[in-house]
Amino acid sequence: MLQNYNDTIKQARIPRRKRLKKLGTVKLNTVETTPVVWQDRLLRFEWVRNATWGAPGGIDREVGYYHFVDMETETPVCQFAADHSFGCCYAENGKMYVHGVRGGGGGNVLDTFVSSDLQSWESSVALTFPDDICLYNTSVCKGDGRYVMAIEIGGKNPAVGKPFTCVFAESTDLLHWSMLDMMEYSYSRDRYTACPCIRYVDGYYYMIYLEGAPCHRWIPYIVRSRDLKTFELGVTNPVMWPDDADKQVICPERFTAEELDYMEHAVDCNNSDFDLCDYQGKTVITYSWGNQYGKEFLALAEYDGSSEAFLKSFFE
């Protein structure tokens, strides 16, 4: 449930704040990613899409998979989890945990993969859902004595309402998960709320998610909650907005002339799949831009400060 925000907006005193800086596009046909620090290296977890999701962008592979990319060189580090989709990662105590949907997308089984070297992976079933629930994006954070996973769901189950909706699971070990009551702990069944990115700071769960705006526009907003039932809307929203800065290209020499032309002339009405991590005193941000019809691109942004400061700045 979203708290009434009108009185807050009327009375709030918000100073000018530092804003994130868009850095530009790094890849075509890549959407769902998570930046993460692993053994002092900045990596990026990616779902490498199959043709079902990426045909307009020239993808013809039948089965998707996961891999990690070194963000300094943009070269793959490993490949695993064939026939999985919509994943996320979380690193802690020398282990990398990856959670994602079994199948090409919209399945009802969520698997966990664990590795201590990014080469050998052990897998297990994290959660299984009813047949009338379809699973999409996920995000994990360490919270108040537990780990919390935000899960984007669709389908015809009453917990979904108007697709898409974010529900929540909890765990004590990142392996064994249990769902919180989806009718009580959710955001938000009354409208499109997708692509969750969840973090925990000073007693609040902060969640950046995707709003479906009028006239085919898709914009990330931020809310926070103490209990994952009642949510407070950030006074300063949206988090970002599609603009020409998305079409800047990082290392254009890595692209062909045809690819550069494809990016330059793509319709940009979407900033989605926002994720972030801290690295060397800054907040590293990955996000997708494009037309929400298959022409999609991966871009980077940064905030000059910690992720905690970034998240709080929308409320204080």
**How many independent structural domains?**
1
> Which superfamily, in CATH terms, is the homologous superfamily?
Glycosyl hydrolase domain, family 43
Examine the coordinates and then state which fold CATH places here, giving the name of the CATH topology.
Answer: Tachylectin-2, Chain A
Query: Pairing-aware structural class of the strands and helices?
Result: mainly beta
- Sequence of secondary-structure elements: HEEEHEEEEEEEEEEEEEEEHEEEH
Helicity, as a percent range? under 10%
Distance between the termini: 21 Å
Structural summary, described in words:
- The protein has 316 residues and is mainly beta.
- The chain has one domain (6-312): 5 Propeller (Tachylectin-2, Chain A).
- 8% of the residues lie in helices and 48% in strands.
- It has 4 helices and 21 strands.
- It starts with 5 loop residues before the first helix and ends with a helix.
- The mean pLDDT is 95.
Salient structural properties:
mainly beta; 21 strands; 316 residues; 8% helix; 4 helices; Tachylectin-2, Chain A
In short:
It is built from 4 helices and 21 strands. The protein is mainly beta and 316 residues long.
